[in-house]
């Protein structure tokens, strides 16, 4: 290989490493700044010269959110709502995607387009009708109304991702299972589902994160700490004349860290689940 080619290859590789490092810094820097802020004293946060290193450090903000503001109640509410939403999204969305991808369903792409169109409505446009319906049914300030709304928001994504994943599984597997006497339900539960775990992990995490972070519907349909979720709880920290930046940063760290750990733990399945459906075998 000529020396000019080697130099060009070296420069390209260095440029890629530098670009990757810049992207990582750009993505991680806000979280690191929040982490640093959560351990700094209030007098340092109001200082004209900001400091990245939390010295001297303090745990006062974490004590405030859990002892004074009862932040653990918001975490429990979010865990219940996001967990139920994920469970129902995977159950209903998995069955729908299996039927559209593996069974003989006419106009299945039209059905998929109709499902996708549901998610295209601006959320602010449907708050008022949903509010009136929830009030009439007595569902205000309940987990039920949040789970139902989040289910309608998450199902289109779950169905589309799982549909693409199911399409990559060879049809010969279905034929062999049918010859052995397996019906559609047994085919889905015993054969297709175990082969599609990366797709289910990916869509489950996406649905969980969506429900975990949603703010507008949670603010509109809940009115007390007994049902309010984390984003609403963080918004309640502020008042008219004071913004507790340290408490907000501590709450943001507590909320974000579990999601980061989940994504890191399942990153191999996430990448496989997102890319597998891009190529049809």
Automatic annotation (TrEMBL):
Q: Name one GO biological process term.
A: transmembrane transport
The residues covered by the ABC transmembrane type-1 domain are 75-266
Q: Which GO terms describe its cellular component?
A: plasma membrane
Coiled coil start-end: none
- Keywords on this record? Cell membrane, Membrane, Transmembrane, Transmembrane helix, Transport
Task: Return the Pfam families for the record.
Answer: BPD_transp_1 (PF00528)
Per the UniProt record, which residue ranges are transmembrane?
14-33, 71-98, 105-131, 143-166, 187-212, 248-266
Bilayer topology reads: Multi-pass membrane protein
Where in the cell? Answer: Cell membrane
Mind telling me which InterPro entries this protein's record contains? BP-dep_ABC_trans_perm, MetI-like, MetI-like_sf
Q: Which family does it belong to?
A: Belongs to the binding-protein-dependent transport system permease family.
Q: What is this protein called?
A: Trehalose/maltose transport system permease protein MalG
* Gene of this entry: malG
């Amino acid at each position: 290989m000529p020396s000019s080619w080697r130099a060009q290859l070296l420069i390209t590789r260095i440029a890629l490493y530098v670009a990757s490092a810049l992207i990582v810094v750009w993505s991680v820097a806000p979280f690191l700044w929040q982490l640093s802020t959560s351990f700094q004293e209030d007098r340092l946060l109001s200082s004209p010269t900001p400091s990245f290193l939390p010295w001297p450090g303090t745990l006062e903000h974490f004590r405030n959110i859990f002892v004074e503001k009862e932040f653990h109640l918001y975490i429990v509410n979010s865990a219940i709502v996001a967990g139920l939403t994920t469970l129902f999204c995977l159950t209903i969305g998995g069955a729908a995607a299996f039927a559209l991808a593996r069974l003989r369903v006419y106009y299945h792409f039209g059905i998929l387009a109709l499902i996708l169109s549901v998610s295209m409505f601006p959320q602010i446009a449907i708050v008022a009708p949903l509010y009136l319906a929830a009030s009439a049914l007595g569902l205000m300030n309940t987990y039920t109304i949040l789970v139902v709304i989040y289910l309608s928001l998450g199902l289109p994504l779950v169905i589309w991702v799982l549909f693409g994943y199911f399409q990559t599984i060879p049809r010969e597997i279905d034929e062999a299972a049918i010859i052995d006497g397996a019906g559609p339900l047994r085919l889905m539960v015993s054969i297709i589902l175990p082969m599609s775990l990366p797709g289910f992990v990916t869509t489950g995490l996406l649905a969980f994160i969506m429900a975990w972070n949603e703010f507008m519907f949670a603010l509109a349909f809940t009115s007390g700490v007994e049902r309010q979720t984390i984003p609403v709880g963080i918004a309640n920290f502020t008042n008219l004349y004071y913004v507790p930046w340290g408490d907000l940063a501590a709450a943001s760290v507590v909320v974000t860290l579990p999601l980061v750990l989940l994504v890191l733990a399942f990153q191999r399945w996430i990448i496989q689940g997102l890319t597998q459906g891009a190529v049809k075998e």
